Amino acid sequence: MEFMREFPDDAACLDWLWRERHAPDGHTTFCPKCDRSRRFHKVADRPAWDCDSCGYHLHPLAGTIFHKSSTSLHLWFYTMFLISQTRCGISAKQLERELGVTYKTAWRMFNLIRNQLMDESDGEPLSGDVEVDETYVGGKPRAYQSRTSHRARVGRTWRKETVLGLVERGGRVKVVHLPDRGGVGIKATIHEHVLPESMIFTDEWPVYHGIGTGYLGHRRIQHKAKVYVDGDNHTQTVEGFFGLAKNGIRAVYHAVSAKWLQGYLNEYAWRYNRRFDREPMFTQLLERAAH
Ligand SMILES: [Zn+2]
Predict the structure, then answer these.
(1) Can you give the pTM of this predicted structure?
(2) What is the SS3 assignment for 225?
(3) 177 φ, ψ (degrees, to nearest 5)
(4) What is the mean pLDDT of residues 111-132?
(5) N or C end: fewer C-beta atoms under 10 angstroms in the chain?
């Protein structure tokens, strides 16, 4: 009801984009051809506005994920609303039922939203106390894993996907699906996403050796010696985030292929990074889509 009041149809969604991207008052904006602020009017039957003086066209859909989509703008907006209203995600199957679109369409919309609107890899780097940890996602069902010999378990470990999590204590998370578990990718990822004035916390896994170079410091927790928390020396924040993301993926999406894993991780990181925000997630998603 709340959604339908604000966005009753396609025209309302298009008008929102027009105001958000071009004309906050609904009709006045800068005309590049006239090189000054002009009044614009809506073109009948087309998602465009024309300059009253010179006829220059502006297309509020241009450059957005909605451009040239065969799905109506109203369905796009409603999908973003549903995604932002749920705490732990919604599957393409649920969306298919809710919207009455095909599974393929639902899935494609989800994919664009996760990979384009929820991608924060180009955002501000992390700083302060930053915990870094790796985890593995995927592989065979757990029922198989518990009974296997050591050798078989090693064989399967390699089919799992490596995910690196970087979390500011009390702040934001970045989560990256790495092509392999080698140290080169891990070091490069840390350098890309963490500012030099940070203190880095990791476990004692060998790939983290030497990553403190260029940083304020690097503290390692001795998990092997069964120590998990030693004062403020721990990686529990990042482990907590991994727990949320993995439970969510297991419960809502059941299984995720390597190709699409980053998109699912984006969604969990996006939610986590907005957990204290006052501005609704739906509004933030709409603004991201517009800009
Ligand atoms: Zn003009």
Answers:
(1) 0.83
(2) helix
(3) -80, 115
(4) 93
(5) N
Whether residue 91 contacts residue 253, with contact meaning beta carbons closer than 8 Å, is answered with: yes
Coil/strand/helix, residue 284: helix
Distance CA(253)–CA(264), nearest Å, equals 9
**Residue 102: both structure tokens together:** 């095909």
Total residues belonging to the chain: 291
For residue 244, how far is its CA from the centre of ligand 1 (angstroms)? 51
Rounded to whole angstroms, the Cα distance separating 91 from 107 reads: 8
The contacts of residue 81 (CB under 8 Å, 6+ apart) are 3, 282
- Per cent of the chain over pLDDT 90 is 59
How much is the pLDDT for 6?
95
Quick: pLDDT tens for 51-79.
999 999 999 999 999 998 989 999 999 99
**Which residues are within 5 Å of ligand 1 (an ion), measured at CB?**
31, 33-34, 38, 51, 53-54, 56
d(CA 51, CA 126): 44
Q: How far is the CA of 53 from the centre of ligand 1 (A)?
A: 5
Strand order in the sheet with 129-137: 173-178, 161-168, 129-137, 199-203, 217-221
Please state at what angle helix 73-85 crosses helix 10-21, rounded to 10 degrees.
80
Measured distance CA(31)–CA(280) in Å, rounded: 32
Select from 161, 189, 191, 155 the least CA-distant residue to 175: 189
